[in-house]
Write a structure and sequence with these properties.
There is one protein chain. The chain has about 70 residues and is mostly helical. It has helices at about 5-30, 60-74; strands at about 35-40, 50-55. It has a two-stranded antiparallel ribbon. The longest helix has 26 residues, at about 5-30.
């Protein structure tokens, strides 16, 4: 395995962990983003270009997310 490939794998692992952490933090506030994941296109790059797909959510979830972010910004 090349050094670049190892670095890309490490970055992907970090991104997957970050997605899990974000999902857990959101869940504690009652928010679930069903499509939260590392963007699958990311896996096709030799060099890391990690994108996190926050995904789609319904209006109720959007409103909950807005409320949580507004409270956190105070």
């Amino acid at each position: 395995m090349t050094t670049q490939r190892r670095a890309a794998d490490d970055t992907m692992s970090e991104a997957e962990t970050a997605c899990e952490e974000l999902a857990a933090a959101l869940k504690r506030t009652g928010i679930v983003l069903p499509s939260l994941a590392v963007d699958p296109v990311t896996y096709g790059y030799e060099q890391s270009r990690v994108l996190v797909e926050l995904g789609r959510c319904n209006l109720e979830t959007t409103r909950k997310l807005i409320a949580v972010l507004q409270r956190a910004a105070r």
